[in-house]
Specification:
By secondary structure, this protein is of the alpha/beta class. The protein contains seven helices and four strands; from the N terminus they run αβαβαβαααβα. The chain starts with a helix and ends in an 11-residue tail after the last helix.
Length: 179
């Protein structure tokens, strides 16, 4: 990584994973001069879900040097609240919705229809927008490369963030982005 790249503010998304995958990723990606240099981290946002917290603990243990005051556990990046659909597969959700008289003319799509008893796309978008604003505030003073201000986001919603980014850029939805 060039010196200039090391000073360019970055947001690094890391999706929760199993212990073996996280340990391998930590060995390859975490450390001085590597993709994720703990000394360059200005802030870490972690979903409060057990898997995300455990991933964080494995990826950046206390010995890594990440200061506790730089870590925020936030519901804003918790997974989508599926409400009545929690634990159901797409086909089961579609069947349930048809039984309730919904989606008779078209198939259910989480991006446009949300989840009964759970969150709408708009609610998820509002949560993610709050996170994006926080990241912008952290990185804003250093956009000219004065010092490294990487932000790490340990998240379950990585796919949702990617899809939201595509939509904001005016790009079409990815194939299969319905759930």
């Amino acid at each position: 990584m060039s010196d200039q790249d090391a000073l360019t503010p970055r947001v690094i998304l890391f999706r929760h994973a199993g212990a073996k995958q996280v340990s391998l990723a930590a060995t390859r990606l975490v450390g001085a001069g590597k993709l994720l240099d703990p000394l360059c981290l200005a802030h870490v946002f972690v979903s409060p879900r057990v898997r995300a917290v455990r991933t964080f603990e494995l990826l950046l243990p206390p010995s890594s040097g990440v200061v506790a005051g730089k870590v925020t556990y936030t519901e804003d990046i918790a997974e989508w609240n599926y409400g009545d659909y929690e634990g159901l597969k797409d086909q089961e959700i579609r069947l349930l919705r048809k039984q309730r008289g919904l989606d008779l003319e078209r198939r259910w799509n989480i991006w446009s229809d949300g989840c009964e008893g759970g969150e709408s796309r708009q609610q998820v978008t509002e949560r993610l927008d709050r996170l994006i604003l926080q990241i912008k505030e952290i990185q804003k003073p250093y956009m000219r490369g004065e010092k490294p201000v990487d932000v790490l986001v340990l998240i379950y919603l990585a796919r949702k963030l990617q899809e939201q980014r595509r939509q904001r850029a005016g790009l079409p939805r990815r194939r299969g982005a319905s759930a």
